[in-house]
């Protein structure tokens, strides 16, 4: 199984601290050494760093650790290959464009069957069930809505599509269009909202602490979503199987 | 105007030497300081590094300079903003998927008018004429061919589409689907094929030489395509206005 990490904030924030713990799980504190990736939205733009090397030793991960990219929506993934070989084409997150926006998707779990992809508007480049599922989701959305609908209609459709897709297998996923971040839980997914009064956080995977009081303003709000909690002195909430949360401006809402 | 750099090879090759000279033009030996990007195909996979900082000082460019990513098709671009603000969404190369392959596109020039984008399958995320042109190209190809056609049919279509698009303005571009790399010249574009017997090359933008004899096998062949020549002791060939070359396995063919 893979590990997911997401961040959604009300002001552009860097993910260096959380990423420092997360990347250790790629080959060091856990055995997910089959590549990794992280995508950052910056306004409508998106940059995606992928590497087929383990995140604990990858030079690209070193850059991401040290270059404080500020973003309101981030999705990261470290891979333990189950379906599809180790290759760049099979590395999450996957990116596509719909309605003039980039979309990022990362998945943890195994789909036992795959829904049919008709019309071929979105086709997988690699051979993972995950990229197939992403292509199916976007294709379904593009067929339902010729243009970008109101957020509530989009989220209702996403809820229906996630229900359908979850019938094919285990479906923990993170999805973002740069405006909001959706988190769907099948087995393991936890979240945390950091906001004033800020305190100190201590990583599980490495003996590193940070005092967010020194780095934040009282109006800042940051939600972190991860397969397993990243810190051992903060309150992480487990999502329930089948639960879909939409994070916007650092706050979750249930669908 | 911007600067383009492309590489097409018969075996995966790193672009570190050429990139070292090229990146200096982003703010140091030339004034293209409004962001830069580079995309590498690795098999069907593609990784794209983008930064809105000048390539001469960007930490991402430092990584690309020092991390020898081996690829058979590379497209890089440094930007002098003419249309569209400085932002990640306006940074080349642009990437989309068609027929289960990633495509990369970078452009140098200004389109005075823009062809209509019907059906909305590909829509620009940023506000450059370049991304619009790329979306139009892919939309046209997807309308002509429901599935990936034979390479010669695809190249014939590309030739027709480039002719149409060039009527809208100045169109120097590099386009690759990971199998081949197309170079279209409107004003400035040069290429070079390095093959046995290999010799020494010396950069124009920095006093750095490399002896390719020590780094290659006799079967290696590498084509480099750049707005302006990168070395001062090799024979670069200028493309003619309106010329479209397809590079495959390090060799150009004229369309």
Automatic annotation (TrEMBL), chains A, B:
Domain of life the protein comes from: Bacteria
Alphabetic keyword roster: Glutamine amidotransferase, Transferase
CDD domains in UniProt: YafJ
Keyword NADP: no
UniProt xrefs under Gene3D superfamilies: Glutamine Phosphoribosylpyrophosphate, subunit 1, domain 1
Domain Glutamine amidotransferase type-2: from-to ranges: 2-250
InterPro entries in UniProt: EgtC-like (IPR026869), GATase_2_dom (IPR017932), Ntn_hydrolases_N (IPR029055)
GO-annotated molecular function: transferase activity
Identification of the protein by name: Glutamine amidotransferase
Organism: Chitinimonas taiwanensis DSM 18899
Organismal lineage: Bacteria, Pseudomonadati, Pseudomonadota, Betaproteobacteria, Neisseriales
């Amino acid at each position: 199984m893979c590990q997911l990490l997401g961040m959604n904030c009300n002001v552009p924030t860097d993910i260096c601290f959380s990423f420092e713990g997360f990347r250790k799980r790629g080959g060091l504190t856990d055995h997910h050494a089959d590549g990794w990736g992280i995508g950052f939205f910056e306004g409508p733009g998106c940059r995606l760093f992928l590497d087929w090397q383990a995140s604990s030793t990858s030079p690209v991960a070193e850059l991401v650790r040290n270059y404080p990219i500020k973003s309101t929506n981030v999705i990261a993934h470290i891979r333990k290959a189950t379906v599809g070989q180790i290759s760049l084409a099979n590395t999450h997150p996957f990116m596509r464009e719909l309605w003039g926006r980039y979309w990022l998707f990362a998945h943890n779990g195994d789909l036992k069957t795959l829904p049919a992809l008709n019309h071929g508007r979105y086709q997988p480049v690699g051979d993972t069930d995950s990229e197939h599922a992403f292509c199916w989701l976007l294709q379904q959305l593009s067929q339902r809505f010729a243009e970008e609908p109101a957020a509530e209609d989009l989220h209702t459709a996403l809820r229906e599509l996630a229900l359908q897709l979850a019938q094919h297998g285990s479906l923990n996923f993170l999805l973002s269009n740069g405006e909001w971040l959706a988190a769907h839980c099948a087995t393991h997914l936890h979240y945390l909202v950091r906001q004033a009064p800020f305190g100190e956080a201590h990583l599980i995977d490495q003996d590193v602490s940070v005092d967010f009081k020194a780095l934040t303003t009282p109006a800042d709000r940051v939600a972190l979503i991860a397969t397993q909690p990243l810190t051992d002195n903060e309150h992480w909430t487990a999502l329930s199987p089948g639960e879909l949360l939409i994070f916007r401006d650092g706050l979750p809402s249930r669908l």
